[in-house]
Amino acid sequence: MSGDESEYRIARFRDRLAREDVAELGVRVEVRGAAVLLTGTLPTADRRDEVLRIADAELIGMPVHADLLIACADPPDRPEELP
After folding, report:
1. How far is residue 17's CA from residue 33's CA, in Å, rounded to a whole number?
2. How far apart are CA 81 and CA 31, in angstroms?
3. How many angstroms separate the first and last alpha carbons of the chain?
């Protein structure tokens, strides 16, 4: 795969993340050698799965490494105890 084709596919992936329902602008897409690294924090595991599904579709044949965290927005299950 040529460098120009890789750059085009990565740009198309970034655009798709920005405009689709997933619209996760907090996901960073970096090129590391021949691989693509996805980093960031997402609100739910479903959102992470959707980002990875889009990456699989757009970046076929390119190694993708994901370091995507899920933000825990659940309320605490017990009151905080202060000393």
Report:
1. 22
2. 45
3. 60
Q: Going residue by residue through the chain (83 aa), what tens digit of pLDDT does each one get?
A: 667 888 999 999 988 888 866 666 678 999 988 899 999 988 888 889 999 999 999 999 999 999 999 887 667 777 878 87
| Tokens (6 digits) for 30 | 């970096």
Tell me the whole-structure pTM to 2 decimals: 0.76
Distance CA 41, CA 39 (A): 7
Cα 56 to Cα 66: distance, rounded to the nearest angstrom: 11
Buried b (16+ CB within 10 A) or exposed e, 11-36: eebeebbeeeebebeebebeeeeeeb
CA-based torsion, 55, 9, 62, 30: positive or negative: negative
Q: Which domains does the chain have, with CATH numbers?
A: 3-70 (3.30.1340.30)
